[in-house]
């Protein structure tokens, strides 16, 4: 992949007619090292946030050895790239065929579930041809927890309710080598207290079921920085999770796992777009709801933006965007702050699209082509450069940008 110093040099060199994805391998490497070194347990990468093969290999090279996969296609993808990686199939609703292939062909030993029916499927699909039950399963029961502290809920679809958890935990215990409890507090959890609440519920589930628990998996939800969303430092999350994990009534050698998607991938990518038309404070641009800006359209997520033209002199003003398709829903209300004199043919960069941005692109309406290049400058925002407020002065080793 061709490498450039920054977005402006890409625009100068390519004058691109279509959006250009900018990838920053150094930023993803830094995030991976941060989790690998500082999270007090095992970090797995939730592949759905961004399944780019380059990113998956990069995370592996920077210390992430375990991958949270949710479909058989993700299992095959990661296994083909990384024969040695540990894969955990963390979607609580799987087909028998997917479980069978994952277990027998790709060496997957870890599965999540939230019903007795799913447990029965896993037991059947992992047994040997003579009917002998697998003895090497790690089974994690997904507990429903609150999403109230997160920007995107994951509370309604999956997870057994606390009142129904005991029989499921007891039944699962009979079929596994290691028993775990997992949950997801919702994506972009804005306070570590979200995990405290969830771990309290885990404590209650363990007490009611009286089972030995070997794995606590706190899921994803670790935040990134976006306009209007400035979460506390990740170190605070790690410290608080660790403290509450240690206080649980679990086996003495129990393991702590996490499944960050967003936090490992958000800073990896941004996109260069071009203004095709301006109508008042609305900019018609060449990427949108069916491209990398799904969340900007569907949940009004705001992303950082910066103009890439030297001749824009006016102060910043609020803009909304229309994407390139003919669909009225291809609209992103923002507000996004760009120079007030921006106009058709001007380029700008939209940042923090590595998570749930690049992964969401479709070819709807003939749009969606985008070439990708590497850039070596810093992302517009970073949780990992030390430029944010650190929790302790002793940690405050910063290189000023
Ligand atoms: C989506 C998902 C993740 C990743 O969540 P983030 O908020 O991106 O960290 C982790 N685990 C499961 C089960 C998921 O569905």
From TrEMBL:
What Pfam families does the entry give? Answer: Orn_Arg_deC_N, Orn_DAP_Arg_deC
The positions making up the signal sequence are none
Q: Kindly give the InterPro entries that the UniProt entry links to this protein.
A: Ala_racemase/Decarboxylase_C, De-COase2_C, De-COase2_CS, De-COase2_N, De-COase2_pyr-phos_BS, Orn/DAP/Arg_de-COase, Orn_de-COase, PLP-binding_barrel
Positions bearing N6-(pyridoxal phosphate)lysine: 48
Q: Indicate yes or no for the key word Lyase.
A: yes
One GO BP annotation is: putrescine biosynthetic process from arginine, via ornithine
Q: Which UniProt keywords apply?
A: Lyase, Pyridoxal phosphate
Q: Which reaction does it catalyse?
A: L-ornithine + H(+) = putrescine + CO2
Q: What highest taxon heads this organism's lineage?
A: Bacteria
Domain Orn/DAP/Arg decarboxylase 2 N-terminal per the UniProt entry, residue ranges: 32-266
List the pathway annotation. Answer: Amine and polyamine biosynthesis; putrescine biosynthesis via L-ornithine pathway; putrescine from L-ornithine: step 1/1
Recorded hits in PANTHER family, A to Z, give: ARGININE/DIAMINOPIMELATE/ORNITHINE DECARBOXYLASE (PTHR11482), ORNITHINE DECARBOXYLASE 1-RELATED (PTHR11482:SF6)
What the record says about family reads: Belongs to the Orn/Lys/Arg decarboxylase class-II family.
Q: What is this protein called?
A: ornithine decarboxylase
The organism's taxonomic lineage, starting at the top: Bacteria, Pseudomonadati, Pseudomonadota, Alphaproteobacteria, Sphingomonadales
């Amino acid at each position: 992949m061709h490498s450039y110093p920054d977005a402006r040099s890409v625009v100068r060199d390519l004058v691109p007619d279509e959006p250009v994805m900018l990838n920053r391998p150094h930023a993803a490497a830094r995030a991976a090292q941060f989790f690998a070194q500082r999270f007090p347990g095992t970090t797995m990468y939730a592949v759905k946030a961004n399944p780019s093969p380059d990113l998956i290999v990069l995370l592996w090279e920077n210390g992430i050895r375990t991958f949270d996969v949710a479909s058989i296609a993700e299992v095959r993808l990661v296994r083909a790239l990384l024969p040695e990686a540990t894969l955990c199939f963390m979607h609580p609703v799987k087909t028998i065929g997917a479980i069978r292939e994952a277990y027998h062909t790709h060496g997957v030993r870890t599965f999540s579930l939230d019903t007795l029916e799913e447990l029965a499927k896993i037991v059947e699909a992992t047994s040997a041809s003579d009917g002998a039950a697998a003895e090497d399963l790690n089974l994690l029961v997904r507990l429903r927890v609150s999403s109230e502290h997160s920007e995107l809920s994951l509370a309604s679809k999956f997870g057994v309710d606390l009142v129904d958890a005991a029989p499921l935990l007891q039944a699962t215990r009979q079929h596994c080598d290691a028993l775990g409890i997992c949950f997801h507090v919702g994506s972009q959890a804005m306070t570590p207290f979200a995990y405290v609440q969830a771990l309290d519920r885990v404590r209650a589930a363990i007490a009611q079921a009286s089972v030995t628990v070997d794995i606590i998996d706190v899921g994803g939800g670790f935040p990134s920085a976006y306009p209007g969303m400035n979460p506390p430092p990740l170190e605070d999350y790690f410290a608080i999770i660790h403290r509450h994990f240690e206080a649980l009534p679990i086996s003495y050698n129990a393991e702590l796992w996490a499944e960050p998607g967003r936090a490992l991938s958000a800073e990896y990518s941004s996109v260069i777009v071009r203004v095709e038309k301006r109508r008042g404070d609305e900019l018609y641009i060449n990427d949108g709801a069916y491209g990398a800006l799904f969340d900007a359209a569907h949940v009004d997520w705001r992303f950082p933006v910066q103009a890439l033209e030297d001749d824009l002199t006016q102060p910043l003003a609020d803009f909304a965007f229309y994407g390139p398709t003919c669909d009225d829903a291809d609209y992103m209300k923002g507000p996004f702050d760009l120079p007030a004199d921006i106009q058709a043919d001007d380029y700008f960069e939209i940042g923090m699209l590595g998570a749930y941005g690049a992964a969401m692109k479709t070819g709807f309406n003939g749009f969606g082509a985008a070439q990708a290049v590497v850039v070596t400058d810093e992302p517009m925002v970073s949780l990992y450069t030390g430029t944010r407020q650190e929790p302790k002065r002793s940690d405050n080793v910063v290189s000023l940008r």
